Amino acid sequence: MKSNLIGIISLLILTSCNNTAFMKFGPDDKDKLVQINIDSTVSFLSLYKSIDEVLCNDHDCQVQLVIDTDSINYRLNLINMCGSTIACTRSRNIIFILDDSIKKYDVGTFNYDSLSNLIQRDFSNNGIDRSLSENPSKVFLHFMQPQSLERVNVKRRLVRTIKEFRKTGFENEKLKLWVQLHPKEIPFTGEIPDEDELDEEIEKLFKSI
């Protein structure tokens, strides 16, 4: 009887483990994937440095974030490049996730719950509205957080971003996400500008000519 009870408990544990769903997001841009488990980092800065170190050491690889939760194990392929690589894109194709809010230049700032609607607007625009994306293939999310943000909150916001994308009904591989330092915390040299000047420089930084 005792051995049967142990067997039943073991079976329940195995069944419970197998009930965790697995979901993959993001494009497969490279043949070589290097995984970084979000739980192995301590802060957003720690995560960013881990991503950048991998990509700067091997330009032929792509980083996949491992984001495990109680109900779903997420795998998110990033579109990051090495931090020293210059990437030019038009701001109209970018949706910025700044802290816990969403920003679209020339459109406005929104709460997190508006992310799925903004993605749908960008995907369906096809270049018509000049403040929105040129075409769906160019839309991506710029995930920018404070360097000191703790891992638990970084993870929560990443999961929330994925859930908002799922609401759109688009294919999982259409989610393009770039992890970047918050623009107000990017190191710089020279005279420190006032807040208004800094905001102007931040906007110029992400707008292409």
From TrEMBL:
Keyword check for Signal: yes
Protein's UniProt keywords contain Signal: yes
UniProt keyword terms in alphabetical order: Signal
Signal peptide residue numbers: 1-21
Superkingdom, taxonomy of origin: Bacteria
Name of the protein: Lipoprotein
Organism: Flammeovirga aprica JL-4
Organism placement in taxonomy: Bacteria, Pseudomonadati, Bacteroidota, Cytophagia, Cytophagales
